Give the backbone structure.
Amino acid sequence: MTVLNITFCCTNTAPEPWLAGLHAALPQAEVAVWQPGAAQADYAVVWQPPQQFFDEQPQLKGIFNIGAGVDALLKLRLPPQAVVVRLEDAGMAVQMAEYVCQAVIRHFRDLEAYATDMRAGHWTYYKPRQRSDFPVGVMGLGVLGARVAQALAHFEFPVNGWSRTPKLLDGVRGFNGAAQLDAFLAASRVLVNLLPLTPDTTNILNRERLSRLQPGGYVINVARGAHLVDDDLLALLDSGHLAGATLDVFRTEPLPADHPFWREPRIILTPHTSARTLREDSIAQIASKMAAIERGEPVAGLVDVGLGY
Ligand code: NAP
Ligand code: GLV
């Protein structure tokens, strides 16, 4: 059997368990951490590699990104013949469904207010709200967005979904394309962003679009910080059009200490943790796709570099 050479270049990731896992899953492979000047490899496993990495690896057959989003990767000059493969679910979809459902429910059920009251020793009740007054719009109905939309539908929220091409999902009212964006927003009070970051979607959560949400709107951004225009969100909170937000992703991460989001009590922050890369699931997926490519079989999850996702 041919020996495959895999080079590993992942920022902020301890390499040893990945190397051991990849080697166990692909015993015919030699797997090594990339160093400047390293020999040519067949495949790369990457997260936010430097441009120098690709400049020195011009003959790669495939580039495996250990995340779902490829926005940072596609900013680099990649070897044109290499296929780019992203993680598809690999244990992230259920995490994203958990996170988004808790954010919607925490808002809808006033759980933040109850937590504050109980800490202060106050036994108070808030009037129950109608689910029908809280239609949730999910932007992006891909691997993660579809799972989230269906999980929300199980909690009996009215759910709208927006995608580039039409999608049919049980319990989800579908909207697609730029022409239906305004109607999608007008039908939604809570907005969940699960779009990839591309030239078409950068700054998509701006004042004009967020103003189209129903009054008392709520924004949940779990995709990328550059989808959201931070000042526009703050202005719409100040005007009272928006009631709050849950944000997991930011233009600059970690969120700078002087950013106003830290001091806005209506915004709940988490540190880009809504759906984490799970090493074992990811290695199993990467190894099986690498083996399939070697056998000349088609694989799912190939990135369309032209579309940017
Ligand atoms: P995906 O399967 O590629 O789905 C992307 C969805 O967005 C598809 O439904 C696609 O429409 C839609 N879309 C793309 N461009 C659009 C446009 N211009 N207008 C309308 N819809 C558009 O991606 P995924 O695996 O679900 O991941 C989504 C994103 O989540 C990632 O790109 C990443 O940024 C983010 N993410 C965040 C975390 C975290 O921890 N915060 C973790 C993982 C991923 P079509 O279906 O018509 O193609
Ligand atoms: C995380 O943000 C990912 O894209 O997987």
About this structure: The pocket of glyoxylic acid (ligand 2) is lined by residues 67-69, 277 (CB under 6 Å).
